Amino acid sequence: MTYVVLRCVIAFIAIAPLSSAIAATLLEGWVVGIADGDTLTILDDNRQQHKIRLAQIDAPESGMPYGRVAKKALSDAVYRRTVTVQAGELDRYGRVLGTVYLNRKNINLQMVADGYAWAYRHYVTDIAYCRAEAQAHDSRRGLWADKKPIPPWQWRRMKRTSRSSPPEGVRGFAAPCDTRSRSR
């Protein structure tokens, strides 16, 4: 676990200067939709919808093992509740990248701590996500009950390459917070 945390510290130091360039704003709204384990939709007081991609985490995709479980966990946590989003920039799909809070509780971090998502190696800027993932892994919580769960970024790459779902029995090889994975 010490090696994992050290790798995250190095990644954090490399990325931290970039994070200050993002001007964060606060959004508040009622959660009206859950697309998957790391994407939700809120409705603000002006009745405007905002699609939010939970920053710094990557949850299993809908067609992956634990995909439905991750979606349900996010839904159980925030659906039909008022949340605050520390919003940053838009991702390439037009979603707001943000940290979701429910009563000051960081939902993004909780998803990782409960074993429903990975710390997103390429974009993580807060070492707390790496620590939470390592603890979930060591405790075999959530998706970590599987000996070698497939990380979502690896699954997406395999799907793009083969244009089909990964062969049954194929398992991932990414260690918790292994910053070597760089594709999205």
TrEMBL record:
Keywords from the UniProt entry: Signal
Q: Which domain of life is it from?
A: Bacteria
What does the record give under GO molecular function?
Answer: nuclease activity; nucleic acid binding
Q: Which InterPro entries match?
A: SNase_OB-fold_sf (IPR035437), Staphylococal_nuclease_OB-fold (IPR016071), Thermonucl_AS (IPR002071)
UniProt region (Disordered), positions on chain = 155-184
Q: Where is the signal peptide?
A: 1-23
Query: Key word Signal present in the record?
Result: yes
Is Signal one of the keywords?
A: yes
- Please list the residue ranges annotated as the TNase-like domain: 25-146
Q: What is this protein called?
A: Putative nuclease
